[in-house]
Amino acid sequence: MSRLLSVNLARPHSADYTDMDFTGIDKRPADGPIAVAAPGPMGTAGSGVAGDTVCDLRDHGGDHQAVYAYAREDLDAWEGELGRKLSNGCFGENLTTSGLDVGGALVGERWRIGAHLILEVTSARIPCRTFAGWLEEKGWVKRFTRAARPGAYLRVIEPGEIRAGDGIEIVHRPDHEVTIEFLFRALTSEAELLPRVLDAGDALNPYFAVKVRKRLGRQAQDA
Asked: What's the whole-model pTM score?
């Protein structure tokens, strides 16, 4: 059974590896229940998880990146590769899951967590300088990209309260091939996949939809 291992909230701290004065990448498990709701437009709104802090509103937060989920199974794989303990929330995820194929989730797939919350998968996490600086692993962005285990951003369809131990049920899977892993590879290392990304339709984070169309336009001009 798929379930929620922890709900993780940011503890902002100052760091010299970010352009902002503070970063909230280091999230820690919190006691529930925790309310989750749509936060508002990107650029002005932060996290959809109550009590969580987004320090850089330029590239993070907003309705289509309201919640970030990462699988405990993927954290365990990284523990083996890095030779160090990785706690729930250390990748900056709000939700640490168990028994759920996050990388295989389709854009537009919907999850019910707890009694009321329904989330919809919108996009993959793209590694950044802050992520690399926080982990202090040489060549981390390239290594993370090669592994193609990015975790998923989600938007809130129906708000609700959640807590560690809640079950996660997939209540809708769309009819296309664009999984989180597929999207990530298309955006980072396999540009030949880009034309198929738009099959995900309106569920795709608009930021990435615009980015994909621009890249496809440039490819057409260069052809």
From this structure: 0.94
Cβ 71 vs Cβ 82: under 8 Å: no
Q: What is the largest CA-CA distance in the chain?
A: 55
E strands within 30-66? 34-36
User: How many CA atoms does the CB half-sphere of 145 hold within 13 Å?
Assistant: 15
Rounding to the nearest 10 degrees, give the CA dihedral for residues 43, 133, 106, 200.
Answer: 50
Whole-Å CA distances, 5 to 35, 46, 52, 170: 16, 23, 17, 16
Measure CA 58 to chain center: 16
And the tokens for 26? 């280091």
pLDDT tens digits for range 94-103: 999 999 999 9
Cα separation, 168 vs 70, in Å, equals: 13
* 179 pLDDT more than 80: yes
What span, in angstroms and rounded, lies between the C-alpha atoms of 141 and 122?
A: 21
The DSSP call for residue 160 is E
Model confidence at 16: pLDDT above 80 = no
* pLDDT > 80? residue 157: yes
